[in-house]
Amino acid sequence: MKLEKRFLNLIIILVEPQGPINIGSVARLCANFMVDELRIVSPRCDIHSLEAQKMALKGMQYINNCNVYETLFDAVGDCDLVLAGSGKLESNNASNEPIQESLESATRWICNFQTINKLAFVFGREDRGLTNQEMLLSHKTFKIGTNKNYPSLNLSHAVSIVLYELSRLSNNKNTKNLVECDLSSTAEIEICFSEMERMLRKIGYLLSHTSAARISKFKKYIIRAKTSKNELNMIRGIIHQINWALNNLNKN
């Protein structure tokens, strides 16, 4: 089933995959659904192994051409919209957990946009998924509805369900009331909040042992608010001006 080209570049990102069979299976799925690019973050196995090749078949081109990144931040840096899926959460503390939507809700949301230049779906490690900090590099996090007592899916099975659901919805020909995708990229948000964290630690509002948790909460507010590029640039401008004032306060 061919994906609607409303998603001009569909990217699948695997974070620290451990099994070459899974990598080969995902590459084959990329060929099945005409995905544009496969990206891999710090693989924990040989992605070009014979096992991967046997599973990939005609999808081997995705492995041969894939870019390998050291961090997830590097992998999503040029993406306009990022969605992350994980069946496992890092803690049972609700205040620290990302807000997860259903897969159906997340895919319906992205189908409301006119075009998305680079749309990325991120999948976590086979054994422990994504960290909460990694999930904050996405615009939305989602989970696939499974037995609550056994929520984890095989990596390649999760990718297949996501690609099928996306193809099913994206081929809906109803193009009325579509909106422009003008959200701040997750890379832009990450850079902005790194600058904010340094500033707030400088003035004593944040302490070193609590800053990460507090900044994570701020990030969740910004992502949940669907902040536009212009709105985020305004926040960065305020931060730059405060930093300039702090640096020049004692010079007059």
Keywords, please?
single chain, alpha/beta, Alpha/beta knot, Helicase, Ruva Protein, domain 3, 2 domains, seven-stranded parallel β-sheet
Query: What is the CATH homology-level superfamily of the largest domain?
Result: SPOUT methyltransferase, trefoil knot domain
Query: Could you please say which CATH topology of the largest domain applies here?
Result: Alpha/beta knot
The number of E-state strands comes to 7
- Number of individual domains: 2
Q: Which segments are poorly predicted (pLDDT under 50) over 5 or more consecutive residues? A: none
Number of helices: 10
Profile the largest sheet: 7 strands, parallel
**Backbone structural class:** alpha/beta
Strand content: 5-15%
CATH architecture tag of the largest domain: 3-Layer(aba) Sandwich
* H-E order: EHEHHEHEEHEHEHHHH
> What is the name of the CATH class of the largest domain?
Alpha Beta
Give the overall shape, derived from the CA principal axes: globular
